[in-house]
Amino acid sequence: MRRLIVRLLVATDGRQDGKRVPLVLLVKDLVTASWDLPGGEVPEGEALPDAAARLLEQQTGLALPLARALTFDQTWGGTFSGTGETLTVVLDAGHVGKERARTLAALPDQVGTMPPVKWAPLSESLPPHLQHAVVFAARGGLAVPVLVNGESDMERMEQKAQRPPA
Length: 166
Known about the structure:
alpha+beta, Nucleoside Triphosphate Pyrophosphohydrolase, globular, two-stranded antiparallel ribbon
């Protein structure tokens, strides 16, 4: 069975050892106690951008436009492990300012239903092979638009915004 996982890269500016470094948002998995990019499994029948936006808002309270895929990672399941093939898609959820980043970090303490979050350097948030792909795509502007039935997510959002209220 094939699984589709979406992860979302939310960035902010930070400082480490006196140098300016990009930081990415991580969410703590309460079951495994590990830290990962926000996201999760995309249920069958739900569009990838819709699932991504829903997961990001549920886990962090952020409602951000998701328009580009930064990288894809296909892993094969093992016969003995009982896991099937997994396709992980990392989407660009954009950049948030310092004040919003501080507010976001404190939000789980204020809203008991959200998992803990933290800001960390990219080197602590992704496996090395994904780090390279994400940095290359983000810096070079070579990210791939996310399409659903041939339409980009940005086009779908613009169409929704132009519709008169029901």
